[in-house]
Amino acid sequence: MCGIVGYIGKKEAYPIILNGLKRLEYRGYDSAGIAIYDGSNIQLCKTKGKVADLEEKIKKEITIKGNLGIGHTRWATHGVPNDINSHPHLSNSGNLVIIHNGIIENYTSLKEELLKRGYTFHSETDTEVLVNLIEDIIKKEKVKLGKAVQIALNQVVGAYAIAIFDKNKPDEIVVAKLGSPLAIGIGEDEFFVASDASPFIEFTNNAIYLKDEEMAIIRIGRDVEVRKIKDDSLVAPYIEELKINLEQIEKGGYEHFMLKEIFEQPTVIKDTYRGRLLVNKGIIKLGGLEDYIEKFINADRIIIVACGTSWHAGLVAEYIFEDWARIPVEVEYASEFRYRNPIITEKDVVIAISQSGETADTLAAVKLAKEKGAFVYGICNVVGSSISRETHSGTYTHAGPEIGVASTKSFTTQITVLTMIALKLAKIKGTISHRDFMLHLRELELIPSKVKEALESNGKIQEIAEIFKDVKNFLYLGRGHNFPVALEGALKLKEISYIHAEGYPAAEMKHGPIALIDEQMPVVVIAVNSNHYDKVVSNIQEIKSRQGIIIAVVTEGDTIVKEMADYIMEVPKTPETLTPLVTTIPLQLLSYHIAVLLNRNVDQPRNLAKSVTVE
Ligand code: M6R
Question: Which residues are near ligand 1 (CB < 6 Å)?
C-alpha cells in the first residue's frame, strides 16, 4: 500500500512528483523516494520518513533536474522502512528504475533464479526482484522494455501498480496494474502517472484508469498504448473526464484534513442525497438500485461485508434494514468472511461498503460472493475504484476525497446511502407506513442542518478534550442504533490519539467491563432520546455508583442525564433511526481534539494508511 507518481514531458519533473507524493501520503508514509533522469544519469534520492524528509535530503544533497521521473511514498510490506528498502529501485545495470505499489508473492523463488544468474540485491524488497527480472528478460530475449514488462508480469504472482523507465529510452514510461490502482493523466505533450488523479489534477482533466491485468506504454508524441498483460493484445483506452478539483483535495484553511472533513459533513451528506431523495415527490431514486430492486426484495438475506469504519456503518444498516425493510441482515468483517468458507447462495445479496473501494479484504469478499452466485452491490466513495468496478451495481457516496486516515465523512455518507436504500426497500415491500416513510424522508433532508448544529459544540468539546487528554483508557457505550456509534467513537480515539478505548453495547457492561470502572475511567455514553433512554439512564447510574466519570452525548433540552453526567455534548433532536448521523459528530471532534492536544500526527497516525490494499 503505497503511492506512486510519474511524469514525462517538457516540464521539470521534480516539483510535480514531489507535490504529487505529498498528496498521496495518505497511502503510506514510512519512506519516500524519487528518481529523475537528467539527460545522462538517473538521479536517485530516497529516505526513511515522510516526503518532507525527502525534500530536505534532496535540498541538502543534490540538484535534481530533468523531464522524466518517478516517485514513491511507501507503507512497508517487504523489508523494514529504511533508506535502502525505499523505492525507486534500480536494476543491476543501473539502466532501469521502478516504483511499485503492491506485493509480489512469489518473489523468493524469482530471486533465487536471479541469484543463480549472477544478480545481486541491495534491499529486502520484492520490487528489486521485479526490476531485475525485467532487466534479465530484456537481455535474454532481446526485447524492448514494454515486452519485457509483459513477460515478467506473466511470471509474477501478486498485486501491483508499477511504473518503470529505461535511461536508454528516455521518451517512455511503462506502467502496469493488477489489484492496485493506477491512473494516467493525459496532458499536451506530457503524461502523468499516479495512484489516483490528485497529483495531476491541476494539469489535466483527462485520465485513463488502467484495469486489472492491463499495462500501458506511455511515449512522448504518441497515444497511450494499452495492452492486456496476459496475451499482449491491444485495448482501446477509455479517456475519462475528471470532475474533482484541486480545492477539494487541499486543506481549505483547516489545520488538518480530518477537521476539514468533519466540518464538510453537512455539505457532503447533502451531496450524497442530492437528486436521490425527492421529498416533495415522496420518492427515493438510486440509479444503481432501480434495475435490481427485485434482487433485494426477494433476497433470503443481505450480507454486508466491510472493514473498520465501513463495518460500523454496516452495523448501523443492520438495525435499519431489519427494522424497516424486514430483510435479515448479517454484517461480516470482510477479512473473516473471505476465509471461513461462508454459505452464500444465489438468493443472497451482498453489500460491500468501502470508502476507498480498494480495501483488499473487502475486494476479495466481493469476488468470493460473486463466484458463489450472489448479487453484489457496492457502496464506495472513490469513483472508478476496484470495488466499484468489481460489483454488479452500486451507489457512490459522493463524499469527495477523504484524505485524513481516520474516516469521518465517509461514515456519515455511507449511513446516508444505506438509509435511503432501506427506506426505499421498505416502501416497496410495504413494511413501513406511508407516514413513517415520509417522516424519515423529511428528517433525512434535515440532517445536514442538524450536523451543522452539532458542529457548533466544537469549542466546548475542545475543553472536554483538554480535561481528558492524559487518561490512558476510555469506555464508549451505546445501545441500539448507537451501539455501532460507540464502536466508531472508540476506534477514532484509538487510531489518532493512541489511547486505549473500547466500545460496548451499554447493557453488556455489567457482563464484564464494569470491573474496569473506577474514578480514573471516563465513560462516553450515547444517551440521546430513544426507546432505550431509560435503560441507558440506568447504565449511567451503575457507572456513577462506581465513581466512573460520565461524558454523555445527549439530546438538546435533556434534563435527566444532564443532571447525572459530569460533562455533556449536545446534539439536536433526531428520530432514533437517524441518530447515528448526529451522535457520531461530537465523538469525532473529541478524538480529534485529544489527538491534537497530544501532538499526534492526526492525518497520518502511526502504523496506518488510508487504504489497506494488503491482507
Ligand atoms: O476504504 P475502506 O472504507 O474500505 O477502509 C476500511 C478501513 O480500513 C477504514 O475504515 C479504517 O478503519 C479507518 N482508518 C477508520 O478510521
Answer: 307-310, 354-356, 359, 362, 405-407, 491, 495, 608, 611-612
Mind listing the pLDDT tens digit for each residue in 480-536? 999 999 999 999 999 999 999 999 998 888 888 888 888 889 999 999 988 889 889
Residues 216 and 289 in one domain: no
CATH of the domain at 36: 3.60.20.10
pLDDT value, residue 90: 98
User: Which ligand 1 atom sits nearest the alpha carbon of residue 356?
Assistant: 1
**R_g (Cα) of the chain, nearest Å:** 26
Q: Which atom of ligand 1 has the smallest separation from the CA of 410?
A: 3
Tally of CB atoms within 10 A around 291: 10
Domain with 208 in it: 3-248
Could you tell me the pTM of the whole model? 0.75
Region at 318 (left for phi over 0; alpha for psi -120 to 50; beta for the rest) = alpha
Question: Is pLDDT above 90 for 194?
Answer: yes
Q: What is the DSSP letter of 84?
A: T
Give me the chain's average pLDDT, please. 94
Q: Measuring CA to CA, which residue among 272, 279, 266 is closest to residue 442?
A: 279
pLDDT given for residue 327 in this prediction: 96
Query: What is residue 102's predicted lDDT score, i.e. its pLDDT?
Result: 87
CA distances from 498 to 28, 40, 592, 598, 602 (A): 18, 47, 12, 9, 10
Mark whether 469 and 521 lie in a shared domain: yes
Predicted pLDDT at 248: 66
The dihedral over CA atoms of 409, 331, 514, 574, expressed in degrees to the nearest 10, equals: 50
What is the total count of domains within the chain? 3
